[in-house]
Amino acid sequence: MGLIAAEHMGPLLYALELCALSMDQAGRSEDAVYYRSLARQLAEAGGTPPDADGGSDPTP
User: Fold this and answer.
1) Does residue 59 carry a pLDDT above 60?
2) Cα separation of 2 and 41, whole Å?
3) Does a structural domain hold residue 14?
4) pLDDT in tens, 4-31
5) Residue 57's pLDDT is what?
6) Has residue 56 been placed in a domain?
7) Contact criterion met (CB below 8 Å) for 46 and 6
8) Are the beta carbons of 16 and 4 closer than 8 angstroms?
9) Is 55 part of any domain?
10) Domain count of the fold of the chain
11) Residue 60 confidence class, pLDDT cut points 50, 70, 90
12) Does a structural domain hold residue 52?
C-alpha cells in the first residue's frame, strides 16, 4: 500500500462506518451492510503484502 493510501485508510474507514450508522438510523439496513462490507474489504486489502516485485507503487 502506498504511503498516501496508508495515511488515509483510517479516516476512510471511519467515514464508511458513519455512512453505515446513518443508513441504520434511516432504516436502510441493507445499505448499511454494503458500506460495512466495503470498509471490511478496504481494511483487508490494506493488510496485503506488496507484490513479489517489491510493491505495486509505479513511482521510480
Assistant:
1) no
2) 17
3) yes
4) 777 788 899 999 999 999 999 999 999 9
5) 52
6) no
7) yes
8) no
9) no
10) 1
11) very low
12) no
C-alpha cell at 44: 483487508
* CB contact at 8 A, 35 and 18: no
User: Cα–Cα distance between 36 and 17 in angstroms, integer?
Assistant: 6
Higher local confidence (pLDDT), 32 or 51:
32
Annotate 7-54 with three-state secondary structure: HHHHHHHHHHHHHHHHHHHCCCHHHHHHHHHHHHHHHHHHCCCCCCCC
Q: Which domain holds residue 10?
A: 3-46
55 three-state secondary structure: coil
Report how far residue 8's alpha carbon sits from residue 17's, in angstroms, rounded to the nearest whole number. 14
Task: Name which of 48, 44, 19 is nearest 34 in CA terms.
Answer: 19
CA atoms of 19 and 15, how far apart (whole Å): 6
Q: Say what the pLDDT of residue 22 is.
A: 96
